[in-house]
Each structure stands twice: as C-alpha cells, then as structure tokens.
C-alpha cells in the first residue's frame, strides 16, 4: 500500500470524545501515523508480523498496521478510548486484539504478549514527568524493534535511558499538529516538532 493511500484511510479514524489533558490524549494525525507505519513496512517490520501498539488511544497506529497486514495487539487503559478503537477498527474492516490495562500495572507484563514490533506514540511527559519511561521499558521487554513518536530533542535522553538494553538505529524529524483541545490552548492549531525513533533491542 502506498503512503498516500494509507494516509487517506487513516483520515477516517475517529479521535477522543472527551480527551484528558493529564493523560496527554491527543489524536495522532493521520499523516504522522502513516509516515511511521510506512517507514516500518518498508523495513519489513509490519506486514506478516505480530505488532504491539502500546497506548493505542483510539487506534490509529494499530489500525494502520492491520491494514498493512500485521497481526495487531493494542494496549490502552482508557475504557472509552478502547470502545472508540473497536468502532474505528470495525468501520475500516480491521481485526485487532485490544487489551485494557495500564502499562504500569504489575499484571501488564504478563497480560501483554511478546511481538515482533512495537509501535507507539507515548505521552511526552508534559503533564506527568517521565510518563514515557514505562512505555520504553515495556517496548524493550516485548519486541526486538520499536518505532516510536517522541518529543523533539529527546534523542539524547532516550539513548541514555536505554543504554545497555537498546540503541536508536535511525531517526526522522516530523511534526505533530494539535487542534485547540483544552482550555490552556491559545491557538486554533499548534505544531509540535517530534521525532520518530527506531529502537533496536540489544
């Protein structure tokens, strides 16, 4: 599937009805989701693979991976987001397995299966400091390769945090466009510079 075709399909994925600022619940824009997934597909890490989406939200990355031929397990702790993800998957004719659990729950390590590839857009830690760390920990435990969206200028922190466990093998710059969502947003649209990092487990 071509990048533009995937992007157009993902435009139909519904976002959060009642997003939480504390949880940093922003819908991953379709162009950014498609870019990450297409990059992973070209590397042979999506089609025919077992793919885990950690913190799937309303399912845009998980659904995109399924459209590209992956066997997808999506993990999310928000029940409403899970229901929207299920509806989105149904609307686009995708079959994804959804697990409702918090990544930090002690049972998560047992309930979340291992896979070939992790895809994720974890919290950046803007509201809760170090909110991205449990996602990195889980990703390194569950798969050999991870494609993640992170705040710009995070590369050095990630390299230090995963030292001895994994390494960043490639990175690309991108943008995350956030529409006015919460009371503290002063502009109709806000462009946040982000980085897509590919992390290989050692």
UniProtKB/TrEMBL annotation:
<dbReference type="InterPro" id="IPR029063">
    <property type="entry name" value="SAM-dependent_MTases_sf"/>
</dbReference>
<dbReference type="InterPro" id="IPR007848">
    <property type="entry name" value="Small_mtfrase_dom"/>
</dbReference>
<dbReference type="InterPro" id="IPR051720">
    <property type="entry name" value="rRNA_MeTrfase/Polyamine_Synth"/>
</dbReference>
<dbReference type="GO" id="GO:0003676">
    <property type="term" value="F:nucleic acid binding"/>
</dbReference>
<feature type="domain" description="Methyltransferase small">
    <location>
        <begin position="40"/>
        <end position="130"/>
    </location>
</feature>
<protein>
    <recommendedName>
        <fullName>Methyltransferase-like protein 5</fullName>
    </recommendedName>
</protein>
<comment type="similarity">
    <text>Belongs to the methyltransferase superfamily. PrmA family.</text>
</comment>
<dbReference type="Pfam" id="PF05175">
    <property type="entry name" value="MTS"/>
</dbReference>
<dbReference type="GO" id="GO:0008757">
    <property type="term" value="F:S-adenosylmethionine-dependent methyltransferase activity"/>
</dbReference>
<dbReference type="InterPro" id="IPR002052">
    <property type="entry name" value="DNA_methylase_N6_adenine_CS"/>
</dbReference>
<dbReference type="GO" id="GO:0032259">
    <property type="term" value="P:methylation"/>
</dbReference>
